[in-house]
Write a structure and sequence with these properties.
The protein is an all-beta fold and about 525 residues long. It has a single domain, classed as Porin (Beta Barrel). Helices cover about 0% and strands about 60% of the residues. It contains no helices and 34 strands. It has a 22-stranded antiparallel beta barrel. A hairpin with a 6-residue loop joins strand 24 and strand 25. The chain starts with 16 loop residues before the first strand and ends with a strand.
Amino acid sequence: MLLIAGGACGAGARAQSVSADTGILRGVVTFVSSTSAYVNVGSNAGVSPGDSVFIARRGTVLTRGTVAGVSSQSCVVPLQGEERILVGDSADIRVQRRVGSDTPTSRSALGSSRTLPASPSVTGRVALQYIGVGSAGDGLTVSQPSLVMLLNVPALLGSGMSLRFHGRAVRNLSQTTPTSSGLSRSHARIYELALAADAPGNPFGFSLGRVTSRYVAGLGPFDGAEVFVRKGNVTAGILGGFQPDFVTSGVDARRQKAALFANVAWKGADRTGGDVTIAYGRQMFKGKLDRDFAYVQSSTRIGSTITIFQSTEVDVTGLEGDERTGKLRLANTFLTMSFAPLPWLAFDGGYDATRIVYYLESMEIRSDTLMDNTLRQGVRGGVFFRLPLRIQVGGRIHVRPAVGDLRASRTIMGTAGVRDIAHSGVSVNAQLAGITGIYAEGTNVSCRMDFMLSPETSLDLGVERYRYTLVRTQEQQSTVTASVSAQTFVARRWYILGGLDQVWENDLPFQRVFAEVGMRF
């Protein structure tokens, strides 16, 4: 297995590192399910449910979310369908509170130096949000105000149980009519609603509601229950329920899910430890077998310098022509490793591969379980340096070989930046990427300036140009984006976010606007 040295420079910064003067945990998206993104930073680094997450690509924020579940080495962030998230995207986690005695006291979600209580009984946020997309001549094609709520009660009424809720109520104000997907102009989405008991050391635990199992992430979210028993470092359990409808947020009773699993955790000296999960999962369609697969997931930390994550799916029942067969078949596999031998040097590397997944009864053919279906196979990696005077430089590469009629593709990226220049609160970052894709090839150049105007207020300015050539027609096209965003904390818990993008797609302009006013608690 080839592991190319690399740090998460193109995806933001060194994975699982803590920025002491910004209060941000920086990581990368390690894999993506149909509804969630998984980031390689977990409770060992201080992450807790309810922390804010900003996922970005090439310096542009794609989506804002919150941590819904945490393991020792990773966390899960429900996706809201706003942008397509890919493995390798950067993830900045704003830690809201101190977790454990060895976790640095962090700033608020927006860079404030005022910390929240050390052990709050309830955390979350309530916010009014607005997203608009359109052009001056045609008006807004997307115009959506919404009410967003995240609630996390880690100790419900002193019972040892926790309650988590994440939902959104949306009103569509655009001139376009609602799609045929079943959504009306006003609708609500529930991403998570779970009552759980999973205190460390307890011999019994459960989750009930709309949940995503941290033991069998390959099944994705389900509406049902998970029950498990624990003895020492060994956990075994069963889960089952219905498939949520990813469009309407309702329950798709035609699709059922179930799994058996066993997990073994281990801990050594000098911060060495990890866990391994082995599971068998079944997906049913109208009571008949749609897919069954074996699933293996492992997370390992060796000291404070090496982290390794792996997940693999193997289909148990497949198709040969029109006949079902019990021949085992590799479906998806993923491997990533990060290595930080020195405070100023970090590497990471990995390998990923996807295979077509056959659904026997619903007759679907897709590859959307743990992996993004555009990744195919490939090796990736990079290197990241922290130099004197707060200078940061790095490079990243992702190479994917040819598969069938699809030609080989690659991305080579370099970044350079200076943080908090002369203690002025001004940071600058530039990035250059050469992209050879399946259908196009071109160059992406971007630059971003961040101004910390006060401990509570920041201003970001950015410009990006992607110029590319279509392989078949040799037609040249370009996209230029200029963006401005601001964020501020009002009083102790109230905050305001706002942003505007001016985009020229082949010289045709349109705008994107985002605004949010809310309260964190």
